Amino acid sequence: MTTLALLAGFLLPAGISAASSSDCRSLDRLLPKSTGGFDEYRKAVAGAVRKAGDKALAARLDSLVRKAPVPAENASLAGCLLRGYVVARYGDRMVADLQHLVTFQTEAKEGRPNWDAPEFVRQREWLAAQSKSSGFPFKSYDGRVDEITLPGPAPVLAVLTHGDVQGVENQRWSSPPFEAKLVNGKIIGRGTEDDKGPVVATFYAMAALRDSGWPLSSTIRLLVANGEESSWDEIPYYLARAPMPDMTLGIDAAYPVTHAQKGYGVLAFHGKGAAEPRAAAWRLVSMAGGSGMSIIAEEGTAVLESSGEPNKAKAELSRLADAWTSAHPPARLSVTREGNLLKLTAAGKGGHSSAPESGHNALGDLTAFLATLDLRQDAWGSLAGFVGTALGTTTDGKGLGIDRHDDIIGDLTTNISFLRDEKGTPVADINIRAPRGVTQEETARRITAAAAAYAQRTGGVVEGTVVLLGEAHLAPVDGKLVSTLLAVWEEVTGTPGRPVAIGGGTQARLFKDGVDFGPALDMVHYRGHGPDEFLTVDELHRIAELTVTALWRLTS
Q1: Integer CA distances (angstroms), 319 to 20, 248, 312, 338, 374, in order
Q2: Fewer CB in a 10 Å sphere around the end CB: N or C, the chain?
Q3: Do 241 and 147 touch, CB atoms closer than 8 A?
Q4: pLDDT tens-digit readout, 48-87
């Protein structure tokens, strides 16, 4: 969809006067597709309007000159100009810059901080160069947070993004994840949506505001955090050295406005096994799978041993797996021989763990099926049996006794993120997203009770621990930030919106009354963390249009 088509379809502001709505619709067919500077663009639009016979609107456009405050009655008209201009002037640059930004492989590496890692240094140097060439002051807080500023009066509006990305291990991509190839209108690459696309869109939204020359009421700071997908250490470090912004909007969740977030938690279960496991038809040798704590696993594997003849055992395991998958679509299980052992592979669909419905967890299928077998209750067998019965294909936490509902934030959810070997001990890592009122102490008590019940029933011992559990976040909906962003959403899209709650945890929660404004239309279809993550060119432009309007409305 072209910029003009976007404007024609979306610029139907419901919260402003009929005259202002008419103004925007009048501009739709007249906005230039490309431009030099902002003054040239504004004059071209005014000339086209005057030629079309609307002298009054042309006069109002003529009055929107640099350094002159924009009257309230012309604020929406100014927003129309900014939306058209940011894409006409910078639309191609946004695409090229996002493609370049994705080439920096800014994923966390175990045992090394992000701040001085070579790829992060390269990205920081590139951002600094881009800022300098655009005339924006740039400051790095020791690599933790990179700050790009559009100077203005003392109040500070921060736009929070991040430059680090999730890994791509154990994921199947159709296009190289760090090349950002443009395929059928899609920019495919790790970080396009989460969160490098918003970095680029915000940068050029700030450039468009600067180009207008209109006085602003605040300083705008683009914050690029570099530990959002791992430690979260960088924001406390930044806030210890920089003043808390007066308002903070992140672009790391969903539209219209994300004002509530569940608490982020991690549970770990260690398989210990029965003191003297009884004989069984199957012995589980190992399990493996997982790509990230916040990623729905695409693949999981288990290696099994049978006391029977290998070919017959393979046939029997295949029969059982086929019957189970037929009863549990869309599960996919396959069995292969590896010497005298059998390898069971589960295939799923990647997604974001905060929205279990966005994917299909291979580790859930793997453990749920294994739990139906006659497994020897040693360390691996106990872990598989417990996880498969307590969690398996479910995501509500009921099997662990930790399910909970919140009318505003929603239900607690679980995700089996990793099955792994930790120095000879089998481990399952579970990511939970918890609403208000869920405490670490009560969660620990309940998972311990669930493990004890399994041990009493089977003899298999599993130990559970709460590694961490953060509190839920809820920003007020009646303040200037939320109300303005909802008005912007309606102005640009023509669709009324309401504040939403998400299972994901973004760093906006670390700022006073912080919220998120995009970039996804909803979290169910959120592509960040999954394979073939992408933004279309039109989506990138849409994020820029919404962002420049939000910045304008919050600072004009």
Answers
A1: 68, 56, 11, 18, 15
A2: N
A3: no
A4: 899 989 999 999 999 999 999 999 999 999 999 999 999 9
C-alpha dihedral sign at 303, 307, 311, 312: negative
Say how far apart CA 354 and CA 357 lie, in whole Å: 9
- Segment 403-408 shows an average pLDDT of 94
Q: 3-class SS at 448?
A: helix
pTM (two decimals): 0.83
Tell whether the torsion through CA atoms of 511, 512, 518 and 523 is positive or negative.
positive
Beta-bridge partner residues of 428 = 269, 419
With b for 16 or more beta-carbon neighbours within 10 A and e for fewer, the 449-476 pattern comes to ebbeebbeebebbbbbebeebbbbbbbe
Determine the angle formed by the axes of helices 75-102 and 118-134, rounding to 10 degrees. 140
CB neighbours of 191 closer than 8 A, spacing ≥ 6?
A: 101, 102, 106, 165, 197, 533
The amino acid occupying position 199 is V
Find the farthest-apart pair of alpha carbons in the chain and give their distance in angstroms, rounded.
92
d(CA 530, CA 519): 15
Q: What is the DSSP string of 39-59?
A: HHHHHHHHHHHHHTT-HHHHH
* Rounded average pLDDT over 347-359: 91
Please give the backbone phi and psi of residue 31, each rounded to the nearest 5 degrees, phi first.
-65, 130
DSSP state of 107: B
> What is the radius of gyration, based on Cα positions, of the chain?
27
Cβ distance 170 to 290 under 8 Å? yes
Would you state the pLDDT for residue 69? 95
pLDDT tier, 363 (very low <50, low <70, confident <90, very high otherwise) = very high
The secondary structure of 304-333 as a DSSP string is EEESS-HHHHHHHHHHHHHHHHHHSTT-EE
Whether the bond into 176 is cis, omega within 30 of 0 = no
In DSSP terms, 345 is beta-bridged to 301, 334
